[in-house]
Amino acid sequence: MQIKSNNFIPAAQIGINDAEQAAAVRKGTTGAYNNRLAAVFADGKAHGEAMRRQAAAAKRRTLKHLPDLLEQAEARMQANGTVVLWAESAEEANQHVLDIAQRHAVKRVAKAKSMLSEEIGLNAVLQSADIEVVETDLGEYILQINGEKPSHIVAPIVHKSKESVRDLFIDKHAMPYTDDAGEMTQFARQILREKFLSAEMGITGGNFIIAETGSVCLVTNEGNARLVTTIPPVHVAVVGIEKLVGTVEEYATLTQMLTRSATGQTMTVYTHMLNGPRRPGEKDGPEHSYVILIDNGRSKIYASNYAEALACIRCGACLNGCPVYRSTGGHAYGWVYPGPIGAVITPLLQGLENAKQLPHASSLCGMCKEVCPVDIDLPRMLLDLRHDLVEVGVTDRTWDWGIAGWKTVNKSPRLFELSGKAAARGGRFAPSQLPGPLGGWTMYRSLPSFAPKSFRQMWRERNSDE
Amino acid sequence: MSDARKNILGRLRAAQADLPEIEETVDFRPMVPSKALNSAELRAHFIREATKLNCIIHEVEDEDAAFAVISQLVGANRRVAAWDDASVPIAGFTMRMANAGFQRVSAESPHAEIGITGVDAALAATGSLVFMSAPGKVRSTSLLPATHIAIVRAMQIVTDLETWFAQQRDDALTMFQDASNVIIISGPSRTADIGMELVLGAHGPHTLHIILPIAHDDPAGSLPDVRPI
Ligand code: SF4
């Protein structure tokens, strides 16, 4: 997916000014935020916090043992009949999927939601090889027919109102008019059922891989991932190398923390543990199963000061809690992963120079860390990234000019005093909106008025009075 | 074959030692703290949680009563898919269906309107059902039809996911890994994608009936997995 993260400020303005989208995002994030609170602390604050620590520790153990767990998982998956492939880059991963598709003469792919597949741009690669790719998660399907990108890692169309979905279905599929979300869902179900039954290959991501059993685990509510992993004869899972967990006990903690933190459910409707292709005597399930373990920059993060970011289980809680995300929506972040976790991993995966503004897309209020089920210190990492920006000299022009000006003025006592006077006088004529890139400041607040007399002036007057 | 595997593992190994030390052993607390429950309480707890998830619970005295409920739910002229007899906890299920005049289709048929299955376990803490795929236990039966009827034996109800995994661990996870597909179902399929409104019946069943016979295989007080906490 094309990265546009250096456009954060203008893109955020668009998001904030779009009243319909802003209302939808507010509704979705507020609901998810409240549901999470109720679910995580259903048995009291102390228990909820203890479970967070348990989940955080499980993911830290995973990271510490990551290479060993990957080898263990590979061996287990191979033992259950899964073909395991490794990919260092997006291109290599996409080539693997393409090769598999061609080996099995695939013409149509049914796909469940996978942020990693967005990250590597898988759909475009398959489509350019004349393979039809159908997104089957309802939200992702709506985005696909509208040529849009997800704006949230759990609720991909959180930015869309019910009315805009209705109009889209009427426009693209001649749906009979209805305002009922249930009828719209049934309408999409009919269309997609056909696609499931005729797809030769199913593609999913993976929320976890349990190393000791080689199980690829998914959480879904709609049932589309079940269809994708049951009906087509070939199943391919594209999974980031950080998605491992060691044991079934760790998995039990993490999968239940994931759903509580994401939607406030104690369990999602479907909690899948996939152990390879169908066994002799079984009448359904894929005949061939492939798992592609994808690095695409993750091992670089592993070796950095930001390794902790790999503990993320993509629950979306930090998005729902973040005051910046809640007002800008997800598209402003310009790539696959929005919100606080996106502001951290986008520059890490795509290069700081391609996401200069994201480390600043936070008020450092600390909410993201507080709600994170695995206690990732996102504010610390955002600060460190700001530091890195300065170190490597990647900053915004306006910022550089501003700092240069500030330095000149402050080095000279005369200029400093003059600037104070100018501000006090000029303040009366100051516009209510600052021009250009500084406009972001005045969008939310009015400019402070300067005191009519500076401290220096007052000091001098006071001394002369005596 | 590329060097991807070697390179990735190499990079990770080189950095592994720099990661902070961690606590290796932990006592796992279950997600839902529960008190010791006897079998009746466990059953009541399961029913409460499953009802919250929009499941429809039918408590019945015995297998005959269970089948009578099923007959009523199926009604006339509906296409029914079912698991093999060995995996459905009502004796002579195929025969009963034939006698009742059900229009039976193959278990994996995309045209079935109602799917009837047993389960492998039920989790009281979350109102969930566990299914482990095997010959005779076709996955589509609980997936493609708009209505799913699951029959649970009382002794199959365990406290929670953690307890169920502990049982699997006792058997060295052998049964778990022998199943190509393990799925835990918590309520009928649903979505809230459109306008954040909850809709039941997205891609899977929109109705989930759970039939709980008070079975003779559940002598009072001898329930296997009651974990005191
Ligand atoms: S960083 Fe934490 S809160 Fe944010 S998505 Fe990842 S796991 Fe969830």
Q: Could you characterize the architecture of this molecule?
A:
The complex is a heterodimer of chains A (466) and B (229). Chain A has 466 residues and is α/β, with parallel strands linked by helices. Among the domains of chain A are: 41-296, NagB/RpiA/CoA transferase-like (Rossmann fold), CATH 3.40.50.10420; 404-465, no CATH class. Chain A has 22 helices and 10 strands. In chain A, the strands form 2 sheets. In chain A, strands 1-10-7-4-2-3 form a 6-stranded parallel sheet, with helices on both faces. Chain A has a 4-stranded mixed sheet with strand order 8-5-6-9, sandwiched between helices. Chain A is globular. The mean pLDDT of chain A is 90. With 229 residues, chain B is of the alpha/beta class. Chain B has one domain (34-213): Rossmann fold, CATH 3.40.50.10420. Helix content of chain B is 27%, strand content 20%. Chain B has helices spanning 4-16, 39-52, 63-74, 93-100, 161-170, 174-178; strands at 56-60, 79-82, 103-104, 114-117, 121-123, 128-132, 147-151, 157-158, 181-185, 190-191, 199-200, 207-213. Chain B has a 6-stranded parallel sheet, with helices on both faces. In chain B, strands 8-5-6-9 form a 4-stranded mixed sheet. A two-stranded antiparallel sheet of chain B has the order 10-11. Chain B is globular, with a radius of gyration of 21 Å. The model of chain B is unreliable at 218-229 (pLDDT under 50). Chains A and B meet through helix 2, helix 3, helix 4, helix 8 and helix 9 of A and helix 1, helix 5, helix 6, strand 9 and strand 10 of B. Bound molecules: iron/sulfur cluster (SF4).
